[in-house]
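Task: sequence design from structure.
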């Protein structure tokens, strides 16, 4: 049994994805690891410490819903030429994940304040 270098969950080495000297339990963990390294956010792993990350229970890839007029009318407030939205991100159980979401959002074009 070895730990995934991203989520920390343990699996038999035979089912792991080997990426150089790193091991990942799935393509998702491998992708997030490379995203963090590419954005110089590797300190996420120090903040996470020994905490393990649970896999996503369900996922909807319908991000187009955010562009729908009905969604925007309900959830977005427009003021002085700016738009404001409050989102609830479910499944976060450690401070490292909160930190990571903030850092990634801060780098997005058009985000002024979190």
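Answer:
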């Amino acid at each position: 049994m070895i730990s995934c270098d991203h989520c920390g969950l343990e699996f038999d080495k035979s089912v792991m994805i080997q990426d150089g000297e790193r091991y990942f339990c799935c393509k998702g963990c491998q992708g997030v690891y490379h995203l963090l390294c590419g954005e110089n956010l590797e300190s996420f792993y120090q903040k996470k410490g020994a905490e393990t990350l649970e896999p996503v229970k369900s996922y909807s890839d319908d991000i187009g819903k955010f562009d729908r007029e009905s969604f925007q009318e309900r959830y977005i407030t427009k003021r002085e030429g700016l738009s404001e939205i409050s989102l609830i991100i479910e499944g976060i159980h450690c401070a490292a994940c909160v930190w990571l979401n903030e850092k990634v959002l801060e780098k997005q074009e058009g985000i002024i304040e979190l």
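Strands lie at 2-3, 10-11, 17-19, 22-24, 77-79, 82-84.
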